[in-house]
């Protein structure tokens, strides 16, 4: 994974999260790294979130983000409205954004989360002409 750290590090993104939520965030990061070893990661501690994609631009080149919440981690999809989810985990009513509320490390290994991540990566590859 190519981490762009000019805004901060992933460690800083999860610094204020509870241990449980931070562990979920680290597990999601490991999953993204497994599925897309060449992903560009842009941690933004000020938000706090980290974006993942094919370049540094979060709204055009990124397909996903990890954002710690109080009791769970959001696995967000910048263009989630453009991908199909075969399950019920994908939430949101915005024009393009969708997210999955990840409540456990076990959930990070679900087939549905893997499928949604793969669909999000493919959507961005196609949109960017890669």
What does this structure look like?
The chain is an alpha+beta fold and 130 residues long. 31% of the residues lie in helices and 22% in strands. A six-stranded mixed β-sheet has the order 1-2-3-4-5-6. It is globular and about 35 Å long. The mean pLDDT is 94.
The assigned structural class equals alpha+beta
The secondary-structure element order is: EHHEEEEEH
CATH architecture title: Alpha-Beta Complex
Low-confidence stretches: none
Count of distinct structural domains:
1
Q: How far is the N terminus from the C terminus?
A: 18 Å
Q: Which range does the strand content fall in? A: 15-25%
Contiguous helical run count: 3
Write the layout of secondary structure elements.
Blueprint: E1 2-3, H1 10-14, H2 19-35, E2 40-44, E3 49-53, E4 62-68, E5 73-77, E6 98-102, H3 111-128
Concise structural overview:
By secondary structure, this protein is of the alpha+beta class. Helix content is 31%, strand content 22%. It has one domain: Aspartate Aminotransferase, domain 1, CATH 3.90.1150.
